[in-house]
Amino acid sequence: CSIVRSSPIQHLSINLHSSHSKIGKDGGDVWLSVLGEVFDVTTGRDYYAEGTGYSVFAGQDASPSFTTGNF
Questions:
Q1: Does 10 have pLDDT greater than 80?
Q2: Is 48 helix (H, G, I), strand (E, B) or coil?
Q3: How many other CB atoms are there within 10 angstroms of residue 69's CB atom?
Q4: What percentage of residues in the chain have a pLDDT greater than 90?
Q5: Counting runs of H as helices and runs of E as strands, what totals does the chain give?
Q6: Which of 3, 5, 61, 71 has its CB 3.0 to 4.6 Å from that of 33, i.e. a possible disulfide?
């Protein structure tokens, strides 16, 4: 299970399947995962939502790119 940090004090357990649908489609939430932690990046939808420059990371494990710098 991964952790969503929706606020500094709230943690929710989620599974990998539920993160795949969080790509910002139709105004929905946008999540991305790095090193086993899932982050709600909905406030950055201009960057991460479907159809934007970093949308490849939405709903995915972005660890390889963020740890190696190979985007």
A1: no
A2: helix
A3: 6
A4: 17
A5: 3, 4
A6: 61
Amino acid at 31: W
Angle at 15 between CA 51 and CA 52, to 5 degrees: 10
β-bridge mates for residue 32, sequence order:
39
Q: Where are the alpha helices (DSSP H) in the chain?
A: 16-20, 45-48, 63-68
Q: Which residue has the tokens 């993160």?
A: 19
Backbone angles phi, psi at 52, to 5 degrees: -105, 175
Q: How far is CA 66 from CA 13, 27, 52, 63, in A?
A: 22, 25, 18, 5
Residue-level pLDDT at 67: 87
12-42 pLDDT per residue, tens = 566 666 777 888 888 899 988 888 888 889 9
The two tokens of residue 25 are 């489609």
